Amino acid sequence: MSLVKDVQFGWRGMRKNLGFTIVAVATLAIAIGANSAIFSIVNAVLIRSLPYDHSERIVQMWESHDKFQGTASWPNFQDWRTQSSSFEALSAYTRGDVTLLESTSPERLKGAFVTADFFHVFGTPTVIGRTFALNEDQPSAPATAVISESLWRSHFAADKSVLGKTLTINGEPRTIIGVVPAWHRIPANVEVWIPLVPKPDVAQQRGNHFMFVAGRLKPNVSFAQAQEEMKVIAQRLAQQYPDEQAKRTVLLVPMQEQLVGQTRPTLIALLVAVGFVLLIACANVANLLLARVTGRRKEIAIRTALGASRSQLIRQFLVESCLLSVFAGLIGIVIAKIGMASLVAWAAPFLPRASEVSLDWRVIIFSLILATLTGILCGVVPAWQSSKADPQSSLKQGGTTSGPQQSSWLTGTLAIAEVAAAIILLIGAGLMIHTISNLQQQDPGFQTQNITTFKISLSDKTFDSKAASRFFDDVIDRVSALPGVKAAGAITFLPTDQFGWNGDLTVQGVPKFDNLAGAIERRYISGNYFRSMNIPLLKGRFMEKSDLPSGARVVLINQTLAKMIEPYGDPVGKLVLGDTDADSLTIIGVVGDVHQKGLNAPALPEIYIPHENPWQSGQGAIRQLAITVRTDGNPGSLMTAIRNEVAHVDPNQAIYDVRSMQTVVENSYTNLRFTRTLVTLFALLGTILAVVGVYSVLAYLVSQHTREIGIRVAVGAQTSHIVRMVLSQGAIVGAIGVALGLFGAFGLTRLISAMLFGVKAFDPGTFVGASALLFMVVLVACCVPAWRATRVDPMIVLRQE
Known about the structure:
- This protein has about 800 residues and is of the alpha+beta class.
- It is built from 24 helices and 22 strands.
- About 50% of the residues lie in helices and about 15% in strands.
- A hairpin with a 2-residue loop joins strand 7 and strand 8.
- It is elongated and about 100 Å long.
- The protein starts with a helix and ends with a helix.
C-alpha cells in the first residue's frame, strides 16, 4: 500500500509541475527512443540467430592464401565434397542477373546458380512446392527453377497454381517447382534460383575460382574439427596440384559471422555513441530533480518531522523518477518505431539482414529495462540528497535560503559528466566528418561527372562467344554515335563496386608473384572504356579496333602492376603467359590506377583484357558487361535514346541497374556516411543537452546565492566582478569536463579507427577543435545566468532578510 501511495503522490506531483514533467519526459524519451532504435538494428543483425534451422552449424568456406581469401573452383569443390566427412551437405553457388522474358518486355531479376543440395545446407522450407532434388543439377535434368516469395507475390499474385508454370529465363524455358520464404536471403535479394551446371571445360579448370561454397556441419562435429579436416584436405590437394594449389588452404567462417562481421564495428560504435546520449540525458534530468529537491526542503522537513523514515523518502523520490522514465520509455518506443523505419530504409543497401529489423519483444524489453535503469540513475542522487536534509534547519529557515553546498557540488559534478560525454561524441563526429571529406576529395582514378552506367547480361543459350562480342560491340557503336555522347565503353565490373574476378598471373621474364597468388584483378573491357571514363594512359597505347581483326591478343595493365614488373624490364611489350602459347597476351600499355575496391582501399595490381578475346583456353564468352557513357551534359536525358539503340540491336535484352558514376562512387561508402550522420546527430544532441545542463546548474547556483550576490552588490561589487564570478564557475565546469572527455576519447575513438580514412584516431586538430568548440559554447550558455546575477536588486534581498 505504501508503494501505491508513493505512486499516487508522485503522479500528483507530475501533474502539478507540468512544465518540469514535460521537459524531463521529453529529454529521456528522445534518448531512450534513439537507444531502442539502434538496439533494434543490433538485435536483428548481431544478436538474433539466423532464421535457418540450426544456423550455428552452417559455415562459409573460402580458399585462403596468406591474407587473401577467395572463391573456389569447381574441381576443388568436388574434392572437398568427396574427401570430407564433417559435413551433412556442401553446396556451391554463384550469383548473376538473369533476364525474364514476359509478354510485354524483358525484365531483369537477381538470380543465383546453385548446386542441388543448396537449400538442404540452409534447411530452408518452402512456402509451396519443393526445392531441388539431388539429381536436378545434372546436364540431362529437366530445366527447373525455385522462386522467392516476393517474386511469387509481385508477379503471380501469390497464386498457388504457379507450380508447374514455365518461365523463360535467359532464353530457356524453366518450370517453377517451388517458392521459398522471404526470410531466405542468401545470396542477398535473389528472386530466382537455378541449378548450377558448369560447362565441361570450366569443370576441369582448377584455377578458375568463381563459386562460393557453404556447408552444414554434422550434429556431432565441432567447428574446430571441420576446420582441421579441411586444412588436411587442402594440404593434400597442394601436393597433388602444386601449380594451382601451392600454399593454399581452406578457411571456414560461421555463416552469421560471414554475413554480419563487417558491420559489427559500425553498430557497436553507434550503440556506444547513443549510450552516451542517454547518460547525458540522465545527468540532465538528475540535475533537474536535484533542483526540485532543494525547492522541496520544507516539504521534506515536514514529512520527516511527522515520522517519515530515510528509506521512505528515498523510495518516494525513486518512485517519482521512475514514473518519469516509464512515461519516457513508452514514448521512446514510439520514437524508436518511427526512427527505426527511417534508419532501415537508409541502411538497407549495405546492412545485412535489414529486412529482419523489427520492434520485437527483445527491443520492447530492452526499452522497458532501459527506462527503469534510467529512472534509477536519474533518481538515486536526488533521493539520497533528500534523505540527508536537516529538518530543523529547513523549518527554521522556512525553505527560503540557499541550499546546502553539497547539492551545488553534486549538480556541478553531473554537469561535468555531461560535458565529458559530449566532447567524446563531438570528437567521434569530427573524425567521421574528416573521413567522408577525405573520401570525397580522393581521386578515384577516373571521371565521375556526366557519366551514366547500365548493365546488360546475355543468355549463354542464345549467344555464343562471337554473337555476344558482336552484340556488345554493336550496342557500344550505336550509343557512341548518339548526339551529345563523347565516348562509350564497357567493363565487367564497375570501379568501386567492390566486385571482381581475380587469379594468378605469369609474366614472361618475371618471377611468380607468390605474395599475390590469386589476387591479380582481371577486368574485361571494350577498347573505348578508358576514354569513356577518362582514365589516363601513362605509357604505350590504348586498344584499337584494328587489333581484333588482326588476331592480336593485347592487354593493358595498371600502374601498380607495372611497378611490380619494372624491376625486370619495361612492361610494355612483355607477354602475359596463358595455358598455351596461343593464349599468351602482349602488354601494349599502362593506365592509371583505379580504386576498384573502394576509395578507402589501395589500388590492386590489375590487368585489362578485351572482352572479345577470352584469355585462357576453354573460358567462355563474356556475356555480362556494364556500359559506361560519357556525355556533354546530363546523361540521364539520353537514357530513352540509349534504350532504343539497345532494342534496335536486340529487343529481347533488358537494360538494368542504371546509375550515374557519381552514385556508384558514393554508394561505395554509404555505410560510412550513415555512421557519420548518426554520430554527428548524437553529438549535436549530446552537446545541446550538456550545454542546457551547464546552463541549468549556473542558473540554479545564481538562484541559490541570490543573498550573497545582493550583499556583494550592496557593498560595492562591480558588475564585471559578478559576471566574472559566474562565468568562472561555468568555465571550471567546462574545463574539467573537456579534460575528462579528452582522456576518455583517447580510448573510445579506437572503436571507429577501422572506419577512418586519411585521419588518425588521435588526430590533434579534431581533438583541439572539438574541445575549443564545446568550451566556447559552454561559456556562451553561462552568459544568461551571469546577466541575471547582475540584475539582482540588493534592496529587495536585504529587505527579505
